[in-house]
Structure to design on (231 residues):
């Protein structure tokens, strides 16, 4: 099973700042099979990025994904108030698909 | 607009079987482009994929569960279901159903989710 480790656990930033979230895999993941999700309190996760860098339908362009192999990054270029949430990476390169433990982006 | 809605008991006794149903509207579970998945999230914790079913009836499961689990479909009702046997307190979680894009040969990303339902395992 591929283990995904996200860092940092919590990111304290102000609106307008840039957020950089990391996801490291225990084995190489094909870039086609890495996704990022956003989850707000009491809500289901929402798909943001798939294929490591492709934005899902309706996702603003301030969200971008990069990376390959074992290191992947989600960047939010300028934080909006609605972006403060928990973010999860997921790999579906090998079964079982696994999620990272999450990074919480909180208001500083 | 695709919508998924979980339903089932909110309380299950230890050692019994958890059964949930996901009703799908605005799309057909017989589409060859998608799998239909169950994911869970214990309170305050992360996400765990449980299993998925394809319209052909083929199912895929997370081996870490290590006990009988079934994900099945009812195409006549446009629903799919989850059963998990011999539950313990560790199975207390919010259970989500979701649509999973078929990215052959892999199961794929989860692009639409239900709101989730909390299942508590307690006597």
């Amino acid at each position: 099973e591929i283990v995904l480790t996200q860092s940092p656990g919590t990111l304290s930033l102000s609106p307008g700042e840039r957020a950089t979230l990391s996801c490291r895999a225990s084995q190489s993941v094909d870039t086609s099979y890495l996704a990022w999700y956003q989850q707000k309190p009491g809500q289901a996760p929402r798909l943001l990025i798939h294929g490591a860098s492709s934005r899902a339908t309706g996702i603003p362009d301030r969200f971008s994904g990069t990376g390959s192999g074992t290191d992947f990054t989600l960047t939010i270029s300028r934080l909006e108030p609605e972006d403060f949430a928990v973010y999860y990476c997921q790999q579906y390169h090998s079964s079982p698909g696994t999620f990272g433990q999450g990074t919480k982006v909180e208001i500083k | 607009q695709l919508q998924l809605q979980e339903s089932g008991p909110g309380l299950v006794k230890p050692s019994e079987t958890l059964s949930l149903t996901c009703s799908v509207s605005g799309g057909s579970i017989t589409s060859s482009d998608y799998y239909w998945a169950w994911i869970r999230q214990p309170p305050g914790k992360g996400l765990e994929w449980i299993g998925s079913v394809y319209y052909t009836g083929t199912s895929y499961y997370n081996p870490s569960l290590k006990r009988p689990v079934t994900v099945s479909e009812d195409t006549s009702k446009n629903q799919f279901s989850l059963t998990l046997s011999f539950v313990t307190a560790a199975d207390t979680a919010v259970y989500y159903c979701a649509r999973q894009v078929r990215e052959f040969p892999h199961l794929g990303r989860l692009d639409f989710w239900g709101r989730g339902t909390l299942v508590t395992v307690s006597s």
